[in-house]
Amino acid sequence: MKTKEERLPMTLLEKLCGIEHLLKKENVGVTELVTAFSDMICCSTYLLGSEGDVLGAASNAGGNVKFISAGLSLKPEFKQRIGFIFETAANLPLESSFLKEDDTVKPDTFMTIVPVRNVRVTSGHLILTKQGKQFSEEEQVLAETAALIACIFYYEGELYGGDSETRQKANVQLVLDSLSFSELKAISNVFKDLNGLEGFLVASKIADRIGISRSVIVNAMRKLESAGVVDSHSLGIKGTYIKIKNTHFLEALKLKVK
Predict the structure, then answer these.
(1) Residue ranges of domains in the chain
(2) Residue 64 is inside which H or E element, if any?
(3) Is the pLDDT score of 1 beyond 60?
(4) 164-256 fold
(5) Measured between alpha carbons, how far is residue 28 from residues 10, 22, 114, 167, 249 in Å?
(6) Global pTM exceeds 0.85
(7) What is the DSSP letter of 74?
(8) Taking a C-beta distance cutoff of 8 angstroms, is the pair 186, 203 a contact?
């Protein structure tokens, strides 16, 4: 039996499942969110509120993840600048600290900023930092998923926790708003082919037909699954079985692509 040190690195799918597992747990707080994000993305994580306040932070030093005590705050100039970031900004060289409490920055540190969007409003940001190398494409996918998970917790906990139908509509809207133009085009074609609430998808055929890469469809479907909108199961060469869990999804999708 392999020891902890001998185990193989987690795959992207395993890390995505680790982040998405937070949705199945009850009473998940900011501490658990940011430490899970730091663990799966292998970086330090700062979750900001709508006013630029630091809701929680966690560091990751060589796989040793720990929650950073509360009380951190952004420098005024950085808080002002981040308020105008509405799309993911990846691998920005970090030349000076963005925190009031810490003026030190290690060399070769990179920062990725992901908006946490609440329907059409940016309700916060996820700041990720790591030293020595840039965030990979896989890590950026994980970061986008983490921001979506954070938004779901924010939305349910702060605004619509007691109304199931309103919460379902909100989840659909926020995940649609999180999709890129290519991803929205992809899932629009996927669900035209599905022609109902469940069926089979062959991503490569749809990708070839509309002129996009298969990975665009896969990433879009992962976001839908992360938000609890669909369930999907791979059937090998037969394709992927998809079932829509949120009955508000198809109507919202039609309105979005008009």
Answers:
(1) 4-159, 164-256
(2) strand 64-68
(3) no
(4) Arc Repressor Mutant, subunit A (1.10.10)
(5) 23, 7, 21, 17, 26
(6) no
(7) B
(8) no
